[in-house]
Specification:
The protein is an alpha+beta fold. It has one domain: Chorismate synthase AroC (Chorismate synthase, AroC fold, 4-Layer Sandwich), CATH 3.60.150. The protein has 13 helices and 17 strands. The strands form 6 sheets. A 5-stranded antiparallel beta sheet has the order 8-7-9-15-10. Strand 1 and strand 2 form a beta hairpin. It is globular. The model has no long low-confidence stretch (mean pLDDT 94).
Length: 387
């Protein structure tokens, strides 16, 4: 499985081309739209979410509700493009018009300056339009297909908020199904509703101050068989792939599995997950401190991965920077933005993790069509249960 995304933040559309999906997977545009709508929600989102309603068109690879095994094209049209056509259109414009519209003032925390240096752009709109977090809508669209594969294999996944600006949600034992329900009902996408109001207060305070705040999100994947990924090469370790996918999300600065960095403060006897066995379950771990991974492979326990998101860098409280033409200092431009995008980021992270898990399954098992894949996975589950 692989996918490519294309499109700019204020361009005509975002496009995702997905390849390697088994034939005969039940897929409706409503399945994709549900994920896109969830991404646009969450307390602390800015006005742009009211302007753009992300809905998908399936342009290829699906017929009568089922995938064909050929590449799938997903398109999310930007309804606001009519107001940006003069700025983002593909046709040439007069040089003086181009100079007047140039973005020459890089914003701290964004890709503006680094991208301009790398690609030799004097107009940094060429950078910021593609480096925008809006690109994650295209990745959520791809991840929604991966989630359909996992659903067919009885694998459940959910993303939710663990922390916003130092306010930490408690670990409450519950099934993934219950976590899905609780997080979808929560405006801050938290499963510990006792923390909702406090989180909302800090988001409101940040907005009032013209500032932004970040947090930590967590994804749990339940029903994954042991042995996904591999120890034989560094680039086949599934936890490594997931970690890379997590930090590829805009504004994410780190990832950890299970107790993660806390392992630096515990002893080995307190850290590693002891092994048990019974005839019904097969091998299992008595704890899940390592977040479902050993040696780059799944253990059969739930995958538990956290990602940390920095505060959004586009502020109403501008930071200092330097104009690349005049070299004069200035205060970075004020634009509409989110005071906190952590709840929305939980949805994005859920989908990028779903992609990596589903991709690993497709790589490991025969998967030309869904019945073949389901049979192969079920036979594997039974073999390792009785091993």
């Amino acid at each position: 499985m692989r996918y490519l995304t294309a499109g700019e933040s204020h361009g005509k559309q975002l496009t995702t081309i997905v390849e390697g999906i088994p034939a005969q997977l039940n897929l409706l545009k409503e399945d994709v739209n549900e994920s896109l709508i969830r991404r646009q929600g969450g307390y602390g989102r800015g006005r742009r979410m009211k302007i753009e309603k992300d809905l998908v068109s399936i342009l290829s690879g699906v017929r009568h509700g089922y995938t064909l095994g050929s590449p799938i094209t997903l398109a999310v049209t930007n309804d606001d493009f009519k107001n940006w056509e003069d700025i983002m259109g593909e046709d040439p414009i007069e040089e003086d018009q181009h100079i007047r519209r140039q973005v020459t003032k890089p914003r701290p925390g964004h890709a503006d300056l680094n991208g301009a240096l790398k690609y030799n752009h004097r107009d940094m709109r060429n950078v910021l339009e593609r480096s925008s977090a809006r690109e994650t809508a295209a990745r959520v669209a791809a991840g929604s297909i991966a989630k359909q594969i996992l659903k067919e294999l009885d694998i459940n996944i959910v993303g939710y908020v663990k922390e916003i600006h130092g306010i930490k949600a408690s670990d409450i034992p519950m099934s993934v199904e219950k976590k899905i329900k609780k997080s979808n009902e929560s405006p801050v996408r938290v499963i510990d509703d006792s923390k909702e109001e406090e989180m909302k207060h800090f988001i409101d305070q940040a907005k009032q101050d013209g500032d932004s705040i970040g947090g930590v999100v967590e994804v749990t994947v339940e029903g994954v068989p042991a042995g996904l990924g591999s120890y034989v090469q560094y680039d086949r370790k599934l936890d490594s792939k997931i970690a890379g996918a997590v930090v590829s999300i805009n504004a994410f600065k780190g990832a950890e599995f299970g107790i993660g960095f806390e392992a630096a403060r515990t002893r080995g006897s307190e850290t590693h997950d002891e092994i048990g066995y019974d005839e019904q379950r097969g091998y299992y771990r008595k704890t899940n401190n390592l977040g479902g991974f050993e040696g780059g492979m799944t253990t059969g326990m739930p995958i538990v991965v956290k990602g940390v998101m920095k505060p959004i860098p586009t502020l109403y409280k501008p930071l200092e920077s330097v104009d690349i033409n005049s070299k004069e200092p200035f205060q970075a431009s004020i634009e509409r933005s989110d005071s906190c995008a952590v709840p929305a980021a939980a949805v994005v992270m859920e989908h990028v993790v779903a992609w990596e898990v589903a991709s690993s399954i497709i790589e490991q098992f025969p998967s030309d069509y869904m019945d073949q894949l389901k049979q192969s996975v079920n036979e594997y589950r039974e073999r390792i249960r009785t091993f």
